[in-house]
Amino acid sequence: MTGITPDLINQYNISQARNPAALTADGQTSGIDLRDCGPTVTVLLHVGAVTGTTPTLTVTAQSSLNDNTASAEAAADAYTDITGASTSLTDSDANSVVSFTFHNRNERYVRLDLDVGGTNPSFTLGATVLSKKTSY
What pTM was estimated for this model as a whole? Predict the structure, then answer.
C-alpha cells in the first residue's frame, strides 16, 4: 500500500524554539514568526533529566503582533499569554516528549514563557514549535 507522505518542509513551519540544555531559572524563548501560518500551533517539549526537590516547570505560549519591537508604523506590542496554551511538567515527565496544541493564535509571533519552581530545579529541555502554513 502506498501512502502520501506530507511535504513537511513546505507545508509546515517547524522551528526549534529552544535547543536542548539545562533550564534552572525562569526565562523565555525568542519569538517565532508564524506570518504565513494558520491559528493552530503545536508545541513539542523534549524533556531529558529532571532534578531538584519537587521541581516544576510551567510552559506558556505567548503572542505578539511585532515581536515586541517598535517601528515607524507601530509601537512595541508586548508578549501576552495565549489563553489555554500552557502545560506543567514535574520530575515524572523526565525522559519524555510532552506536547500541547492551541487553536487561538491571532498574532504573528509566538514565544514560550518558562516558569521554573521547586528547590534547585533543573530540567534538560528542548522545544519545537510547529504550525501549518496557509499557503505553500
Answer: 0.91
